[in-house]
Amino acid sequence: MGCYVCCMPLYCERSRNSVNTALPTTPLAWVNGSDAPEKPSLDIGFMALTDCASVVVAATQSFAQPFGLTLNLRRQASWAGLRDKLVSGELDAAHCLYGLVYAVHLGIGGVPASPLAVLMGLNQNAQAINLSAALQRKGVTNPEALTRLVHQQGARLTFAQTFPTGTHALWLYYWLASQGIHPLRDVSSVVVPPAQMTAHLQAGRIDGFCVGEPWSADALAKGQGFTLATSQSIWPDHPEKVLACARGFVEQYPNSARALIQSVLAAARFIEQSQENRRSTAQLLSGSAYLDTPVDSIEPRLLGDYQDGLGHRWHDPHALRLFDQGRANLPYLSDGMWFMTQFRRWGLLRDDPDYLGVARQVQQLALYREAASALGVPCADLPMRSSLLLDGRRWDGSDPHGYARSFPLHALDAAPDARASH
Amino acid sequence: MLRILLIDDTEKKVGRLKTALIEAGFEVIEAGNLSIDLPACVETVHPDVVLIDTESPGRDVMEQVVLVSRDRPRPIVLFTDEHDPDVMRQAIQAGVSAYIVEGIQATRLQPILDVAMARFESDQALKAQLLARDQQLAERKRIEQAKGLLMKMKDCNEEAAYTLMRRQAMSRQQKLIQVAEQIIAMSEMLG
Known about the structure:
- The complex is a heterodimer.
- Helices cover 36% and strands 15% of the residues of chain A.
- Chain A is of the alpha/beta class.
- In chain A, the strands form 4 sheets. In chain A, strands 2-1-3-10-4 form a 5-stranded mixed beta sheet, with helices on both faces. In chain A, strands 7-6-8-5-9 form a 5-stranded mixed beta sheet, with helices on both faces.
- In chain A, helix 2 (53-60) crosses helix 12 (254-271), helix 12 (254-271) packs across helix 17 (365-375) and helix 15 packs across helix 16 (355-362).
- Chain B has 2 domains: 3-120, Response regulator (Rossmann fold, 3-Layer(aba) Sandwich); 129-190, Winged helix-like DNA-binding domain superfamily/Winged helix DNA-binding domain (Arc Repressor Mutant, subunit A).
- The N and C termini of chain B lie far apart (75 Å).
- Chains A and B meet through helix 3 and helix 13 of A and helix 3, helix 4, helix 6 and helix 7 of B.
């Protein structure tokens, strides 16, 4: 037999010598090699955001080695680029917006429909909606003042998010709508890459934005605005980024996919094992190869220590969750379905998809459960979870069709041009 | 004459590409650095083709352009740094096919692609998979060795040794292998 690590019997020292000497001390059937990764070296894409932590720690701190994998980190400059490389196979897997996976799978956006898969959740919470310092000076520092301003004649505010079908667009839309502001009609919505938000704020081109950390904390640190609402105040413990890959990858390399889940899950568990590990993680992420941002913009919110730029400080009980005993990682079907209900609500989907059927195809629940149990990470029995969102609506995955139609503000029958307004 | 919108917001110098395209007989309009203005720019310029770097952060903005105008799409051509024409073709298959409208024939796009490819041909070597695999094995042995040394020095178990090494590595923005090498070097020096 060849070497399970490198599949190269001729070149591998291990297979020439003894197969057993350096075997990893992991469970599973490593001993007879049946679960060996088919592809031992994987290219993993990520965007410079705090919630890529588990992926970066897994790759740099050798969490994949015991499973016979090498993870090569590939930082991406845009979500569209990351998506194209996932679809083309240039990236084997990536840190990805939950909504983006479903948009590609359903063919919403710039590429034809292409089957993708969610291997696991990477995190919950830790995104935020922020307003500019100019609005702050005008006294627009609470939702009521913002709503009043938006409904005044002649005031047309511009809000930025990070991708048309991404989570930030959907948190922004959901929050604005919950305040009686129609996100596609009452305000302008534009896309701005995360790291450029502060520059656009400073130049007065945008009045507010929804983005992942550290870019909210970074804007505050630069005196460029304040945090009006955290994403966890919209939906405590909401799904956010996932580890995504092309469906073909899971089909062709199931063992690599399982080993990848185990590596990233082990890294997530390690990060949340102690405050000291969390702090070291913030240090690592601030490096130029990863977020390239001062650790002061990363560490506080990673530890749950929030301040909003208006003088309020609090310890957030629903701050960034990378692991939470596996609760942040299980790819619930209801989580995936929620994004489809919002695409339908805002007219990005013109018809209802087969919500449950699509979620079953995309969410790799069985593979995740195998990987998690091998690591001793607990898994919920049910594929759905029930959540209460800030507008008082409960989402439990039981009636996606009705849920998508239950909102007073929507764009269910939108003409194509109303989809992203200008 | 095909009108090309050239989006120039990465560090690469696209000057020669622009000249080459103009010499090839295309009308070239350059979009500035402000990707936020792209949707408006596309609206006013009405380009036949949009040229954008695959590494450009502005690509997410173009994504919005595509969504807004998905009933009247425009071809978008990516230029990449990849040396391999297959990779280029893959990128086009993945990202661009949807943008190409009936009216524009692939043959008319070809000269643009040729020019873009010629300009952005890079000498970047293809990944040497063999080398990577050898390195993986070597690194793994070194980490195991360092862990063993640390367990002896600190009289701790395997997990504790790994945690110590990882915290050290992360705090210094290093990889685990780098800290492993430092431990081995130190231990060799102390003999």
